Input
Amino acid sequence: MNKIKLVIRGGFDGQTPVTQPPTFRLVEGWNEAELTAPAGILPAGLWGQVPAGDPYLLHANLLTTDILNAQSVFEVRTGAPMQVRAQFTPYAGNTRLTLVRPSDALRILTPPQALVKLEMLVESIGGTNELGSRLYHSRFHTP
Output
């Protein structure tokens, strides 16, 4: 499982694509990066921080010192033109898992905040020893 944390001051604007990869460093078990420019749309590959080429399950939470409101949104967009495939409010008690494909985009919108941390837990569903292979091998077989 990959643990990714993005930190931004001012909040996510929901419209600015982040094309340049931020600098990640390991902080308390998380691959953490600070976004220093406006941000709102992230590539699903998260700049090489997720398994390359595989779909993955994503659990996302937003942590702030201010209150998150109904305007706060996390979307998975797909296709051309981009269409919303999944949308939810990523609050701290969120239990939703979302399937993300490498070709998707992630859109995040928050009201202006002093500091926002986006925590993402990523589990690949393809490849050797990944979730997909563990699910296959965990099925009940009779001799």
User: Anything to note?
Assistant: The chain has one helix and ten strands.
